[in-house]
Amino acid sequence: MNRHISGAERIVSGEKINRTVSELISRAMSRGASPDRIRVTIDDLGPVIARTVTGLDISTVNAPDPAAARSIAAARLKQAGISEKAVKQAIRLLAAGPGTDGQNMRGAMIMEARTGKRLEQDRARGVRASRFDWSEDARHRVRQLLEDHGLPHFRIVEAVALATKIAHGPGVVAEICWSDDPDYTAGYVASPGFGYVRFPICKQPGTGKGGRAIFVQSELDAERLIDYLQNEPVLIIAAGKYHDAT
Ligand code: AMP
Fold first, then answer.
1. CA dist 141 → 17, 61, 68, 136, 191 (Å)
2. Kind of pairing, strands 195-199 and 187-191?
3. Which phi and psi angles does 117 have, rounded to 5°?
4. What is the 3-state secondary structure (H, E, C) of 118-180?
5. Backbone angles phi, psi at 42, to 5 degrees
6. pTM over 0.85
7. Whose CA is nearest to atom 5 of ligand 1?
8. For 151-178, what is each residue's pLDDT tens digit?
């Protein structure tokens, strides 16, 4: 089987490379299913200084089932300015598998907020965001924040980091995601305005279809956004706040 189980990345200074690599290897080995392969890549970011941002605020909506969660998620996206047509299209694709022939994608779809038109060139793979991380201090704080609210899941820390990078992207209006991991039912919508809104049950357990859709203001934003997502380093140096569900 050649299924990708879990990935993680870090932005660190040179003297922390050894320690960080061994932490990531331990992390990969402790994920239940023992992996056939662990791949470690180290990129030198050179003299580029990472852009520093604050993590998105986090809230949870305890919708009782996937239909309720998706309907509230859709309402949030519409409030953020995404058309009904585009929202429906994204949810339909996430449910069906957004890649070719109903496969999952390794990256995200990019959609125009008004029309729902897909703007990523490679519709099988999508666009993978990379080069983002929490500072050590902010990682510690966000973990604590999640733990204080009964949400100590490692996946949430990673997902909020990714959603934070995405929300700061040029032209980004909002994002919707739920995992393709059959054992992980949670999903979220995120935007620069309402932060990261988590839904614990976005799909039925055992369902292996999911993905990410990023909505942009206009078709003209896509190229700049893709370059930002893939190449521009973003370091999250403070955790956002936790809000009670509204
Ligand atoms: P996950 O939440 O890791 O289960 O990922 C859910 C979906 O989001 C995957 O199926 C991919 O389509 C997409 N995805 C995962 N990681 C990234 C990433 N780094 N950048 C963009 N899209 C991603």
1. 22, 22, 31, 9, 21
2. antiparallel
3. -65, 135
4. ECCCCCCCCECCCCEEECHHHHHHHHHHHHHCCCCCHHHHHHHHHHHHHHCCCCEEEEEEECC
5. -120, 120
6. yes
7. 179
8. 877 899 999 999 999 999 999 999 999 9
Which residue owns the Cα nearest ligand 1 atom 2? 179
Query: Distance, CA 128 to ligand 1 centroid (Å)?
Result: 7
Asked whether the beta carbons of 237 and 136 are under 8 A apart, the reply is no
The answer to whether the CB of 108 is under 6 A from ligand 1 is: yes
Question: For atom 3 of ligand 1, which residue has the closest CA?
Answer: 179
Provide the 10 A C-beta neighbour count for residue 232.
18
pLDDT in tens, 81-116: 999 999 999 999 999 999 999 999 999 999 999 999
Mention every residue, 6+ apart, whose C-beta is less than 8 A from residue 131: 9, 11, 43, 45, 50, 230, 231, 232, 233, 234
As given in the structure block, the two tokens for residue 83 are 């058309």
